[in-house]
Specification:
This protein is mainly α and 91 residues long. The protein has 3 helices and 2 strands; from the N terminus they run ααββα. A two-stranded parallel sheet has the order 1-2. The two termini are 22 Å apart. The relative contact order is 0.07.
Length: 91
């Protein structure tokens, strides 16, 4: 968004491409499920969440850990990954 505000055309194409891709996926989702059922098979036995949400009809993958702890662990992992990125990219 900042790049678009700065007038960069590549940033505008990035946003437009993402929106077009998401729209095409949403429109073709029904066909994709029938054409490739193995890709959209149930994960871990059906509808699941990453953390325990308190809704009994959905099982969770984190083993009853609080949602805040799971979100914190994911946030720390993402921050560490961002910290490990090089300061300059040689393109």
């Amino acid at each position: 968004m900042v790049g678009v505000g700065g007038g960069r055309k590549d940033a505008l194409m990035f946003i437009v491409g993402g929106l077009v891709g998401a729209t095409l996926f949403a429109l073709s989702y029904g066909w994709l499920v029938t054409a490739f059922p193995a890709i959209f098979a149930d994960l871990a036995g059906g509808e699941v969440t990453v953390a325990s949400t308190g809704i009994n009809e959905y099982s969770d993958l984190s083993g009853k850990l609080p949602a805040l702890a799971v979100a914190g662990a994911i946030a720390v992992a993402l921050m560490f990954g961002a910290w490990m990125l090089p300061k300059k990219f040689n393109c």
